[in-house]
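REQUEST FORM: STRUCTURE PREDICTION
Request ID: SP-0412
Submitted by: Lab K.M.
Chain count: 1
Length (residues): 132
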Amino acid sequence: MKPIFWFILAIIIIGAGLSLLTKGKKEEIKEKARVKSTESQSKAYQLEAKELAKYICSKEHAFFAKNGYFTASKDSLQILMGRSHYKFDIVSATGIGFKAKIYGNIDNDDVIDTWFVDQDGKLEHTIDDAVR
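STATUS: Completed
RESULT:
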């Protein structure tokens, strides 16, 4: 047989071998990229929770300035909720403080992303739905 035949055969075999070696890596890279994208999206949604916490604080403080106490009534705060990945509840409210819970499922799994905010604006992230 001619040397060119062996040369072409060697290139085909080497190419097939490289293809088999890199196939698993390609799938691994695709999966890492998918997970990274989902995590980035989840972190972006969590910014929404932080902004909602600030909004709740400002509404509670406005209510306090007018009435002399914080309220547990969501209706009294007149918070306008557009499309959001989060909901909120006022867990407690007194004459000196309040605590609100902000929660939502940001990636369609069984974990609910959960935050708490108080009258001082202290934000506590108790369950992180973006963690894998």
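NOTES: The longest helix spans residues 3-67.
Reviewed by: T.R.
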